[in-house]
Every structure is written in structure tokens, then in C-alpha cells.
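Quick one:
INPUT:
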């Protein structure tokens, strides 16, 4: 019997050794001349899609008692953080990739944080870890993609591979349309009772927000989500928390017809009201000979909003001014990156480039303790896909010190609490108060200037 057991153990060890060797793969090297396909191969061969793809099949051991629930929870968490389905499709077909997906892959390679020990320590997964050569491929790919597609035209060469990028000097606009758009942005005739303008909820003197949990519309009605800042919004990949508007012009068409916000029944009503202003109509006709319409009104507002860029001291630093930030602020920036903040808050707008599931590690809504609202549905309200429930467009962190309260629900009043909540509910750990303060010290450098004046 003892000999039989030893034989079984030896056979098992042999099988495990064989499994280790068979799991290791150099398949990616077949694509030496195509970094994108190398990255796709590495992600597949190392089992990344086992937990980071919504439609990935549940492994056989996921049906076992006890361990099955753990496996399913891990897959749900992994998919909430990043679903590689879209990224792999882009890599396979030479299509543009998400700046956020790229940053997450880069962070993983740099930090060695994936896969977790409980995954690759299992015999059936032995060998499915990133080796040093594979990490080099991922890091090189991210650097090249960022340089080719996401680096700001104003960035200093030494900082072109930073996950955060400086603002462009300007966005091309039609100055005549900007002038019209400025007037319309501040025009209360866009509301049915002549009481609310765009500037009411997005006040340029208070960070492009109203600093209320929920904005007040006509008749004293309140909306269901916190108003995001209009500053730098032209750099978002979509508009609104749920992304229901593709661009600024489409966004500008929403509030005037929202019964809780401005309350008009149609843009015909708005045009009729504005048409009574002969001076405005004459100016409008010079820019839009076709006359007043939803298209001309919303395009002019969008054109004005493109001018709302707010360069900060951090931008000066990334543009090459080494004196723009203190040692403490730079330390805060490093702590910001070390805690994965720069995987979602990326690029020139330091956010606004992806939809993220709120509560990857823990349930934020249980913490809030007020019950769910329609505003908590996030992207689900647009797509109807259950996988999009509680996903929101990542907000910009530019001017974050002056755009309180925080989160889509406006439920968090201080920046320190907001930083800690993001680390706990998105990152999975509570960080030391000292590190919170360091991150806040960095965030202060993101307060920008508008028309040469520091925003307050």
C-alpha cells in the first residue's frame, strides 16, 4: 500500500512538472514584428482572460462546493476591473485601444500585481505568470501606443510616457460661434420659466459646477446625480455620468428638454423665444445663415465649451518646467501612481476616458446606506446591459479641489474621504492618512487657470 501511494505521488509530481512546462508558452514570439499581436498572445496564454472576460467559460473547479463561489466572485471582480474582450479584439485587428486598458496592462506589468497567488499556485495554472520578457513586451507596447496616440502635443519629451499628460495649448474653434455660444450658455431663455441657464449648474466662477449634491432646475426640482464640471469637458470621450451623449453638442441638447432641469417641450419653443431678440438674431444670422435651430444653438454652446481649458502648475511641470512643483507635490504624484489612481484617471483630462464599475472591491452602496436610486444605475440606463449597472464615466480630476461634493451621487463632502473611498472600494485597501494627504497635496496642483486667473 505504501509503495502504491508513493507511486501515485510520484505520478502526480510528474504530471505537475509536465503541466508547468506545458503551461509556459513562447507563442507570442511568433509575432516578433507585431507588438499588438504579441500582447494579445501574452494575455491569452497567461490566462488573463480566465478572470477578465465577461463571457469566459467557468472552469471545471468553479462547479465544486465552497471553491465555486470563490471562483465566481473572483471572475466578477476581475471583469469589473477590466474586461479584455474589447482590448483583444482591437489588438487582433489593428484597431485603436483604450487609453485606460493600456494603462491597466502597463501597471500590471510594472507592479507584478497579476495574476494573484491563489490563481497561479493552483496546479492547473502553474506556469501562467508573466515572466520578465513578457513584462518587457507589455511595457514597450504601452510606451509606443502612448507616444503614437495619447501623448499631448505640449508634453516635454522626458514626460511623454507619463500616464497623465498636459493639456493641449488650445482646441481649434470658430471664434464667431464661440461668442454666440457664450451668450447662449448664460441665457436663461433656454429654460421654460426663464430661470435656469447652463451657467446655473455649471458656474464658471465655482469650478464649472454649482457645488450642490444635486442641481436645482425649474420649479425647485432636483436632479438625481451630481453635476460634473464643464471645464475641460471637451476632452471627455463621452458626456454625462452614463455617457448618453457622444459629444458636447449632443450633451447641450439634453438639459433644455429635461423636465427636471430646463423643462422646454421642444427646441421649436426655444427658437421662438430667442427669435424675439432682434439683436441676437442678427448676430446669429451672420454665423448661421440657415437660421435658429437645435443644431445651431447646441453647436454654438459646444464651440464655446471647447475653450474651457484650465492649464495648471502640473501642466507646466509636464511641459518641462521643473520648478513648477515642489518635492512634496512630486512625492504625492508618485503615491497617486503607486496606488493605481493613474490607471483610470489618465491622459490629458486625467479621467473621462472610460466607464468604470463603482465598487470593484467592496459595495459602495452598502457603505452609503441610503438605498439605490435611478442615478446609481450608471451606464446601464443607456445600454440596458446588466454588466453596465453601476458603471460610470470616470470624472476628470482637474480642479477636483474646488468641484465638491464628490462621486456621482454628490454624497462625499471632503477630498480626503473621496481619496480613501476610492482606495478602499476600487483599490481594495485602506491607505495610511499620511498617504491620503500626499495624494491630496498632488491633487492641489491640478487646480487650473481660466483667462489667466486661478480658479477658486
Amino acid at each position: 500500500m505504501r509503495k502504491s501511494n508513493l507511486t501515485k505521488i510520484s505520478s502526480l509530481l510528474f504530471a505537475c512538472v509536465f503541466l508547468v512546462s506545458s503551461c509556459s508558452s513562447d507563442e507570442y514570439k511568433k509575432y516578433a514584428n507585431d507588438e499588438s499581436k504579441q500582447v494579445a498572445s501574452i494575455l491569452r496564454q497567461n490566462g488573463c482572460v480566465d478572470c477578465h472576460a465577461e463571457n469566459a467559460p467557468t472552469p471545471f473547479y468553479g462547479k465544486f462546493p465552497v471553491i465555486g463561489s470563490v471562483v465566481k466572485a473572483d471572475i466578477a471582480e476581475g471583469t469589473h476591473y477590466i474586461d479584455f474582450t474589447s482590448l483583444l479584439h482591437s489588438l487582433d485587428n489593428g484597431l485603436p485601444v483604450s487609453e485606460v486598458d493600456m494603462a491597466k496592462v502597463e501597471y500590471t506589468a510594472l507592479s507584478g500585481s497579476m495574476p494573484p497567488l491563489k490563481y497561479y499556485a493552483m496546479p492547473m495554472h502553474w506556469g501562467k505568470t508573466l515572466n520578465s520578457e513578457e513584462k518587457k513586451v507589455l511595457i514597450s507596447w504601452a510606451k509606443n501606443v502612448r507616444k503614437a496616440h495619447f501623448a499631448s502635443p505640449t508634453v516635454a519629451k522626458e514626460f511623454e510616457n507619463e500616464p497623465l499628460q498636459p493639456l493641449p495649448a488650445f482646441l481649434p474653434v470658430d471664434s464667431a460661434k464661440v461668442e454666440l455660444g457664450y451668450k447662449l450658455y448664460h441665457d436663461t431663455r433656454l429654460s421654460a420659466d426663464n430661470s435656469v441657464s447652463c451657467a446655473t449648474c455649471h458656474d464658471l466662477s465655482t469650478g464649472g459646477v454649482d457645488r450642490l449634491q444635486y442641481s436645482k432646475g425649474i420649479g425647485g426640482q432636483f436632479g438625481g446625480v451630481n453635476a460634473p464640471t464643464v471645464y475641460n469637458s471637451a476632452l471627455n470621450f463621452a458626456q454625462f455620468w452614463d455617457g448618453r451623449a457622444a459629444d458636447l453638442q449632443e450633451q447641450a441638447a439634453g438639459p433644455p428638454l429635461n423636465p427636471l432641469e430646463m423643462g422646454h417641450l421642444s427646441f421649436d419653443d426655444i427658437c421662438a423665444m430667442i427669435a424675439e431678440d432682434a439683436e441676437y438674431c442678427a448676430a446669429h444670422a451672420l454665423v448661421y445663415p440657415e437660421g435658429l435651430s437645435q443644431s445651431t444653438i447646441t453647436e454654438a454652446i459646444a464651440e464655446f465649451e471647447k475653450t474651457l481649458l484650465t492649464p495648471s502648475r502640473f501642466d507646466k511641470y509636464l511641459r518641462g518646467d521643473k520648478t513648477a512643483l515642489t518635492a512634496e507635490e512630486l512625492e504625492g504624484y508618485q503615491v497617486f501612481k503607486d496606488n493605481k489612481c493613474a490607471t483610470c484617471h489618465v491622459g490629458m483630462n486625467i479621467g473621462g476616458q472610460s466607464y468604470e464599475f463603482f465598487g470593484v472591491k467592496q459595495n459602495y452602496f452598502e457603505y452609503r446606506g441610503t438605498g439605490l436610486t435611478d442615478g446609481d444605475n450608471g451606464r446601464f440606463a443607456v445600454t440596458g446591459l446588466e454588466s453596465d449597472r453601476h458603471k460610470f464615466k470616470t470624472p476628470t480630476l482637474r480642479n477636483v479641489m474646488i468641484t465638491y461634493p464628490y462621486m456621482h451621487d454628490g454624497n462625499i463632502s471632503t477630498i480626503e474621504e473621496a481619496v480613501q473611498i476610492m482606495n478602499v472600494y476600487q483599490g481594495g485597501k485602506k491607505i495610511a492618512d499620511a498617504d491620503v494627504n500626499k495624494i491630496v497635496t498632488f491633487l492641489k496642483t491640478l487646480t487650473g487657470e481660466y483667462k489667466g486667473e486661478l480658479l477658486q
